[in-house]
Amino acid sequence: MPRLQTLLRRCALPVAALLLFGAFYTQGRAQDDTTGGPTRAVEMLHTRLGDVDIDGSKAVVVIFLAEGCRISQDFSPVLRELHKEFSVKQIAFCGVFPNAHSTDSSMAAYAEKYKIPFALTADADHGLVDELGARVTPEAFVLLPDGSVAYRGRINDLFYALGRKRSIVSSHDLHDAIAAVAAGTMPAARRTKSIGCLIERSRESAKQ
Asked: Is 113 a residue whose pLDDT tops 90?
């Protein structure tokens, strides 16, 4: 439990950075677009996790995950490597668990089993899901300091359908997107299609 609390506190680091640098504007939800919505998502994270006085993050990578999703589990090594490579380059990471059954204990167990080194938080009310337009787990979002989405979509092209993998990964989409942002440019591909476990929608969030 102390480890999870540390992870949750660390999830607030990119939030504070984005609030310090963000240019706040409203363009509606990001259900079917690459832009819009994430500024409010940053505020949601800030409200839930509290304020940590830190700045300097170039971006925060938000990854929707699920304890029981095999695809989320299979991408754990890739996420560890991404964090290892880019956390030293002013890129912050945060995992979001949107399922109603996610608890502090289940997230802590997931972090321990799959050696997740970055912050985790729950999103049972689907506030972040709705704001960013996430549909499956895993699905990644790279949020810039001004609140815009530099990239959203798959981690790489390992899966081409549910339960079906390629023998060789040829497109490292999330890595390339983070590398571009870290270098001060925009990704060549800003949106890709994620293959993963469908996020179950509550009736209230589905109506929005």
From this structure: yes
Please choose, from the candidates 70, 80, 141, 104, the residue with its C-alpha nearest in 3D space to the C-alpha of residue 1.
Answer: 104
154 vs 148: CA distance, rounded Å: 18
The amino acid sitting at 14 is P
Q: State the first-to-last Cα distance of the chain, in angstroms, to the nearest integer.
A: 35
DSSP readout, 66-112?
Answer: -TT-HHHHHTHHHHHHHHHHHGGGTEEEEEEE--TT--HHHHHHHHH
* Amino acid type, 17: A
The tokens of 15 are what? 């939030």
What is the structure's pLDDT at 5? 52
CA distance 165 to 185: 31
Beta bridge partners of 116: none
Report pLDDT digits (tens) over 130-184: 889 999 999 999 988 777 899 999 999 999 998 899 999 999 999 999 999 999 9
Q: Which domains does the chain have, with CATH numbers?
A: 2-207 (3.40.30.10)
Q: Which position has the higher pLDDT, 197 or 6?
A: 197
Q: Are 196 and 155 in contact (CB under 8 A)?
A: no
Average pLDDT over residues 82-99: 93
How far is the CA of 171 from the CAs of 32, 50, 92, 130, 156, in angstroms? Answer: 23, 36, 22, 27, 6
